[in-house]
Amino acid sequence: MTPMIDIGPVDAIPLRGSRSVTLDGQNIAVFRTGDDRIFALVNRCPHKHGPLSEGIIHGHAVACPLHNWRISLETGEALGADKGCTPTVAVQVEAGRILLAAPIRVAA
Amino acid sequence: MDLQTGLEPALLVDGDGDLALATRPDRRHLVVIGNGMAGCRAVEELLARDGGNWRVTIFGAEPHVNYNRIMLSPVLAGEKSFDEIVINPRDWYDDNAIDLVTSDPVIAIDRDARTVISRSGRTVGYDRLLIATGSDPFIIPVPGHDLPGVISFRDMNDVDTMLAASAAGGSAVVIGGGLLGLEAAHGLALRGMQVTVLHLMPTLMERQLDEAAGWLLKSALEARGQVVLTGADTAAIYGEGRVEGVRLKDGREIPASLVVMAVGIRPAVKLARECGLAVGRGIQVDDHMVTSDANVLAVGECVEHDGQVYGLVAPLWDMCRSLADGLIGTTNPYRGSVTSTKLKVSGIDVFSAGDFSGGEGCEDIVLRDAARGIYKRVVLRADRVIGAVLYGDTADGSWYFDLLKKGTDIADLRDVLIYGQAFAAGGGPADPSAAVAALPADAEICGCNGVTKGQVVDCIEAGAASLDAVRQTCKASASCGSCTGLVETLLALTLGADAVESGPKTMCGCTSFGHDDVRREIVAQGMRSIPEVMQLLHWSTPDGCSSCRPALNYYLLCAAPGEYRDDQQSRFVNERLHANIQKDGTYSVVPRMWGGLTNPRELRAIADVVEKYEAPMVKVTGGQRLDIFGIKKEDLTAVWADLNAAGMVSGHAYGKALRTVKTCVGSEWCRFGTQDSTGLGVTIERLSWGSWMPHKFKIAVSGCPRNCAEATIKDFGIICVDSGYELHVGGNGGIKVRVTDLLCKVTTEAEVLEHCAAFIQLYREKARYLERTAPWIERVGLGYIQDCLLTDPAERVALAERFHHSQSFSQDDPWQQRVAGSDADLHQQLEPAE
């Protein structure tokens, strides 16, 4: 079982907002959607490595700030015509705290 | 109302507290069993004829108001929300004083006592009873058909079950390759499930499509990733405690966590049969929908008329008209319906009508265009159209259907019939609107809402000059939208192509409204938040997208300065972080240099920042200022603090906002200068900085016609001349270079400032989000701008004043606010706990 790491309260992220956290040298984007779900992805767009944590979040997707690729928060896959995938990070919420799984290292 | 006695209250008061309806003790009581499309349409028809003499109680088994059952597929597919498929909202029941009893189906009818009894035990008396119970899904009685996870596709509850199942992912099996089954399969596939369709017959939708079209459809669905098994006979549904898969008679097993049975429907006749009404395949009715009991009527899918049972929505409209006329004593016999089917399956247009089974004396005319995926077949007998199947291009469906219904002799058209109406009428590659123009007034345009061409044209002639207006008045194209093209053509034909109020270009996929409609409604309805706009204008997505949210944020900000609270989450990153994101995720920072002027203190502060934060590059921009590159997000606030300390504020180089005012040195230094262009530039920048705009906005002031500040490719350009100032608008130096138009010439600096403020405000209020001034002026014309700014000085002053009012809220340096601690979280990473 992967140890889960407490990265802070859910309230630290606004609705439809995102913040990043660095775990073991890996930058992770943590998203809070309009329906108050928490998702986490490696903070790097599969296209040109834009920081997804700075994108506009709508539904369960984020639009990358660099070239507006839309990435599914559920699967990390690019939506629409674009092809590519960014790794998802296991996340759970317990007693209002966000717990992240320690990430698997991904080659840059 | 007291449901035990059926007595009315003395008064009914509507939601506003107004007296809605006085008691009419002599009014007759109509009780309707079934709160669906047939029951409610019948009530609408009756109220339209004779509302004053009837009071109505409707019993529904579901917890909802009347919704459009044929639109469940788009809800499943995520294209519509439940609210969008409601036909009769709660207000309709209230306004008509209809007593709606939901979630409490009628379980028995006592015809002798003239009462109905509901599941909860209510007994309600009636003068006339209308049974509109529709149909029940047919469940094949194979072993396992009652396992949890086996459902039908008939109501909102089924859709909710499917949505819940698809959220968990996995595989689904749809039993039945008819219309309903394929729509369920399409929706589940869109929701991410691996879908297998099992169909007993050799080709899909064999009741609507011939073999060739059925095969085309199967190929197209397989290309979209669905597995389609035809000739597949289900032996059993297996699973321990809940469904795990389907076993076919040939032994194959298909694992599935969800099984949708969509093999057919049967008229729901149980109540009618139990109370002794004459029932065949359906409840038997006469030409005015009266059953074997003169006090009991029935309508819709539950009835059998003249030996026919209908499972489509179109016959409803005619049935309900005859029913309502019969109730008020007018003769208008229902004579049965010839039905056609026009639908979209997985985005593929399919049409069929009449008899296409072939046989003795029938002739086929067939056209195939494999490259375009088009198949058309018209079936003739004795020079009459008796059937048609269209796949891929259904534009002529209503024409063939009309020829079929009227039994038109097509001997003269025969050679060109298959090429469609326009070709047949004009003999050439034709004006596509000719086909619509040639349709008779009683041709049906909108099958969902039963609207004829004549009704659409009447509604347009009565003032509905846009697609939206038509949808709101006669409801044509307001449901599934497949006849939108026809309605648009009717608008153009009726009003002339130029007179149609175009609104076809929507803001984005989240809404059917265009930018201008949305802005108008925001102002007219006084909307004050993005969720409010999305709710009132029926957004189809829960929280918009990265296109519409920034636009809405701007429109609200512009409409209600000082009142509207900016939504950071609807801003692009640059406007949220007040800096420009670069390809490596760092930011560039541009402090404002008023009119391009700077001084040692500012330059020193910039130099210090560059060294302190190890910025790898500093560059002079095209807008006469300095851009500091490579600043990390976490350092932005500290950089701004240092720049603020030297008196500098945000340059808004990142925003849809005023960028810079570029100047030349002017009369103070230049031997050609005619006016103080530098000083004027500084004044204008002090006036306009900090303002949010539809897009970026650049200004320049040149001191003489040599135009060193390049004012003729700016959004607002000023060229000083000996006698005053030439004011230019709409220039652009970007991808598509556009030279400005001369707006006017003025003589004083005060006039320059007033015209500048008024022009900016006009642009802010009228241009669409992300529309630069150049394309805006191309779109609306220079004449419009001149009308607004020059014709009436009072109007110009009002515009300028609105700009100044707005500026009084926007000229706070956003950098300084962040330095003071606002939105500090935006710049900080989360910290993992130890």
Output the strand order for the largest sheet of chain B.
7-4-3-11-23
Uncertain segments of chain A: none
Q: CATH superfamily assignment of the largest domain in chain B?
A: FAD/NAD(P)-binding domain
CATH topology of the domain at 15-89 in chain A: Rieske Iron-sulfur Protein
Taken together, the total number of domains of chain B comes to 6
Order of helices and strands of chain A: EEEEEEEEE
Largest interface: A-B, 34 and 27 residues
Low-confidence stretches of chain B: 1-23
Distance, first to last CA of chain A: 25 Å
Q: What coarse outline of chain A follows from CA principal-axis ratios?
A: globular
- At the fourth level of CATH, the homologous superfamily of the domain at 15-89 in chain A is Rieske [2Fe-2S] iron-sulphur domain
**What percent of residues of chain A adopt helix (DSSP H or I)?**
under 10%
SS field, number of helical segments of chain B: 26
Cα-atom Rg of chain B, whole angstroms?
34 Å
**Biggest sheet of chain B, open or closed, and with what strands and sense?**
5 strands, parallel
CATH architecture descriptor of the domain at 15-89 in chain A: 3-layer Sandwich
Helix content of chain B: 25-40%
Strand content of chain A: 35-45%
Query: C-alpha Rg of chain A, in Å?
Result: 13 Å
Organism (chain A): Croceibacterium mercuriale
GO biological process, one term (chain A): nitrate assimilation
InterPro entries (chain A): Rieske-like_NirD, Rieske_2Fe-2S, Rieske_2Fe-2S_sf
Domain Rieske (chain A): 7-100
